[in-house]
Write a structure and sequence with these properties.
Blueprint lengths: L5 H15 L2 H12 L2 H5 L1 E7 L2 E6 L2 H9 L1 H11 L6 E5 L3 H11 L13 H4 L11 H16 L14 H7 L3 H9 L1
Parallel strand pairs: 2-3
Antiparallel strand pairs: 1-2
Helix pairs in contact: 2-5
Length: about 180
């Protein structure tokens, strides 16, 4: 039974970890240092497929500009990667997906929205009957809306019941604001 030093075992584990590391994760780690910080802010590597790196860019101008300099970028990247890349493709495809993710992360809570009426209205138990007739369904809806809007301030422009948050924010209801902005 041979005993190995801790340093020897750690170096073996480190070599195995580098060998098992996926090329794309390795590329993501070194992307910002290989490209300029300005370029890094306008690009995002998406994937490596058949030894071709696909990179999303913020605009077509960035994609075109980086395409012209891709050979020097390939040389720099291949020095850092265990498996060499054959080519790099730049495109704006995939860039919008990240901005959607950012927008989804910045979700507004219901109580922060100007149309929020409060918990007492939104959680009121409604006895929703089974309605067979369209006229009866409309009548039930109209009565429910009238009950919900009872006590709300009126929009100064159209005189419809309006949540107070909308009046505080726009001085009129959301519909009148939309009409004003569309003109």
């Amino acid at each position: 039974m041979s005993l190995k030093s801790v340093n020897g075992i750690l170096s073996i584990l480190q070599k195995q970890a580098k060998w098992q590391e996926q090329p794309f994760q390795r590329l993501l780690k070194c992307w910002a240092e290989v490209v300029d910080p300005v370029v890094a802010s306008h690009t995002r590597p998406l994937s490596i497929q058949r030894d071709v790196l696909w990179v999303a860019t913020s605009s077509a101008a960035w994609a075109q500009n980086l395409t012209f300099g891709r050979s020097s970028l390939l040389l720099k990247l291949n020095q850092k990667l265990p498996t060499p890349l054959v080519d790099i493709r730049f495109s704006t495809a995939g860039w919008q997906d990240s901005s959607r993710e950012r927008k989804q992360q910045q979700t507004v809570l219901p109580q922060e929205h100007p149309s929020y009426l409060g918990d007492e209205i939104s959680h009121r138990p409604d006895a929703t009957p089974t309605i067979q007739d369209a006229n009866a369904a409309f009548g039930h809806w109209a009565r429910t809306m009238q009950a919900r809007s009872h006590g709300l301030p009126l929009c100064p422009q159209c005189q419809s019941p309006t949540p107070p948050g909308e009046l505080d924010r726009w001085d009129v209801c959301a519909f009148c604001t939309a009409k004003r902005l569309s003109k």
